[in-house]
Amino acid sequence: MIEPNDRKVAIIGCGFVGSASAFALLQSGLFSEMVLIDVDEQRAEGEALDISNGMAFASPTTIYAGTYEDIADAGIIVVTAGVGQKPDETRIDLVQRNVAIFREIMASIKAQDCGGILLVVSNPVDILTYAATRLSGFPENRVIGSGTVLDTARLKEIIGQRLEVDPRNVHARILGEHGDSEIIAWSSAHVAGIPLEDFYGMRAVDLGLSASYEQFRQEMGDLVRNAAYEIIKRKRATYYGIALSVKRICEAIVRDEKSVLSVSNTLHGEYGLNDVTLSTPCIVGKQGIEGRMPPALSFTEQRALKESAELLQAVVAKAGINDPASAEPDA
Q1: What is the C-alpha end-to-end distance of the chain, expressed in Å?
Q2: Per-residue pLDDT, 213
Q3: pTM value surpassing 0.90
Q4: Among 74, 84, 107, 69, which residue's Cα sits nearest to residue 13?
Q5: What's the mean per-residue pLDDT of the chain?
């Protein structure tokens, strides 16, 4: 195994999400070397050339199109490859097509004996993170899914917007599937230490809001769950928000921040759930997932999380990810 270079990132997949992530990571100044890989080699070359044209305005970074052999010493390998979500299509609808693509990608990654962190962004991210853990040969702590980092950011933004408060002071998390069965941990939500229900009561008076707290919660939940669908309906793809989420996760890893982020990880007994990959708050640092911090949940939230887990496990079983015969890329 080659010692990973913390200042090198590889991005596999140069579609909208991959190219937007590359652009965001260039602006971050986190890396001095970036390799772009795509089945369409000319696309990767074009993206590398396009992004490189802005080097006079950014931190020195060597950006180039490469092959899987170039990822062996990468500190972080970001996988965004896969078929995109279409209008009126759920993330789960993408399973069979993207699992097939992932078998080939993970076989190519495994062959390089990489020592870095594998960051899965492709959808359905929970299913594909589970598949990556099984197929890549990486230890579980070094396989991270982008999970509900973006969903949580969306929730903070819309709550902040509605209550006219800085979203960075809103502390509320989305757990479970990055998708329709995700749950909002309302019972632990707060704004600058004030329970969200109490804060809402204060701001409702100040801002003249007539909705009850329950109505407010329902509206916020609907807006978050439908956010991607609304964007895809209007512009056919989402990529800027997830690109910034990729940048945020990479920051936590490269800077060894020990930040708590809601990323996809495999549970082993937390909330009574086993052998399922979904989002819970995790400590993210140089070694990847360095600890789990499952928050206290209400009975209703625990039940909803279990239902989300059962849905994901059923999809995994149907996709045959754990079938030994399916481990080979040509299966």
Answers
A1: 27
A2: 97
A3: yes
A4: 84
A5: 93
Of 171, 178, 190, 268, catalytic: 178
For the chain, which residues score pLDDT lower than 50? Answer: 325-331
Supply the pLDDT for residue 89. Answer: 65
Integer Cα distance of 278 and 265 in angstroms: 6
**Residue burial 279-313, b: 16+ Cβ < 10 Å; e: rest:** bbbbbbbbebbeeeebeebeeebbebbbebbebbb
Residue type, 24: A
d(CA 242, CA 61): 22
Please give the pLDDT value at position 327: 45
Q: How far apart are CA 283 and CA 278, in angstroms?
A: 15
The full 3-state SS of the chain, as one line of letters, equals CCCCEEEEEEEECCCHHHHHHHHHHHHHCCCCEEEEECCCHHHHHHHHHHHHCCHHHCCCCEEEECCHHHHCCEEEEEECCCCCCCCCCCCHHHHHHHHHHHHHHHHHHHCCCCCCEEEECCCCHHHHHHHHHHHCCCCHHHEEECCCHHHHHHHHHHHHHHHCCCHHHEECCEEECCCCCCEECHHHCEECCEEHHHHHHHHHHHHCCCCCHHHHHHHHHHHHHHHHHHHHHHHCCCCHHHHHHHHHHHHHHHCCCCEEEEEEEEEECHHHCEEEEEEEEEEEECCEEEEECCCCCCHHHHHHHHHHHHHHHHHHHHHCCCCHHHCCCCC
At 328 the pLDDT is 44
Instruction: Map tokens 């993330």 to a residue.
Output: 91
Q: Is 190 a catalytic residue?
A: no
91-129 pLDDT, tens per residue? 677 788 888 899 999 999 999 999 999 999 999 999 999
Cβ(225)–Cβ(120) below 8 Å: no
Residue type, position 11, single letter: I
